[in-house]
Fold:
Amino acid sequence: MPAVVVLGAQWGDEGKGKATDQLGSRVDYVVKFNGGNNAGHTVVVGDEKYALHLLPSGILSPGCVPVIGNGVVVDLEVLFEELEALTSRGVDVSRLLISSSAHVIPSYNRTLDKVTERFLGKRQIGTTGRGIGPTYADKMNRVGIRISDLFDEKILREKVEGALTQKNQVLVKIYNRRAADIDAVTAELLAYAERVRPMVADTSLVLNQALDAGKTLVFEAGQATMLDVDHGTYPFVTSSSATAGGVCTGAGIGPTRVDRVVGVIKAYTTRVGEGPFPTELLDDMGEHLRKTGGEYGVTTGRPRRTGWYDAVIARYSGRVNGLTDLVLTKLDVLTGMEKVPVCVAYDVDGVRHDEMPVDQSAFHHAKPIYEELDGWWEDISHCRTFEELPVNAQRYVLALEEVSGTRISAIGVGPDREATIVRHDLLD
Structure:
């Protein structure tokens, strides 16, 4: 099974880092193909906890080559902060490869991201303010800066000047901010050139050659399906392709090379930022899920919005990604509940929708139609086989599998790396 895609099947924060990390010890390459440092994932190894933002989680697996693909936007300051933090804890980071075609996040885009979001007021998207959106916009507007540009000072300065010709007008005349200095920005980016040079490669070539050689590759998505710029809850989405199709453009491999697509999904639902959320709980139960599940953003620290499991979204993710498997995480958070509701459909103005409504307005007004399942009280964190789970926990998993339309191949029962029940081998 040489090429496996691992992605979020909800709004992010599903536990993709842990899922990828578990595969990482058995694979040769782990590739990040979209997004930037606007999302984080936590990986727990023994007594050690690692919070990663930009780096692929495979960087924690000895012998695995971590790769940042061309579809990623790279904040160089964050990149080296993370590398230095891992090095100080004894992690070998020497294997990291970065695509020469990946775009760089310049400081002026971080500024624009923050001031634009404040300017929107009540219409805010809920961005992290890390310059992700403006950098992807530069990419599409053909005024972006690539990693390869760092190695030619003349070209780099020309590109910075070209970008700031318009952006400084916006900063000064619309947002009443100071103009960015061309020389200062150029010097800031050039300072990273020699440090990043040893990591830079034609990663598309490297990955295709690895596949030709029968190596096993895992492609991990940043963000998640419902935040995908095309298939998510637009406009409350990220600026990249977080679905399975993004692998081809973001890593430079053809669609025929992908063998399995794994969706990571929580046993309930969370969301960070603005936008519709049909099963959101604004009561004590929502707060219970937040506290018990530790639902606070790894990157921003923002409290996550919480709600019950949404099978409509699960089916939608299965469809747009072509999911072959689901990894169900945080089942242990539901322990101690007498009843656990599951959203199986929506009511939109009196009409039942078993699939995702066609337009955003209908989705915004969707009310969940629930089916209740019996809960369980037993501690499940020690369970390592499906049969060891309490009967009601088993029934819950099987019910989710049926209403979601995709087999559940692994179940997370705790934060530790080993706290997972494997029903089907994801690499088999």
Remarks:
- The radius of gyration is 22 Å.
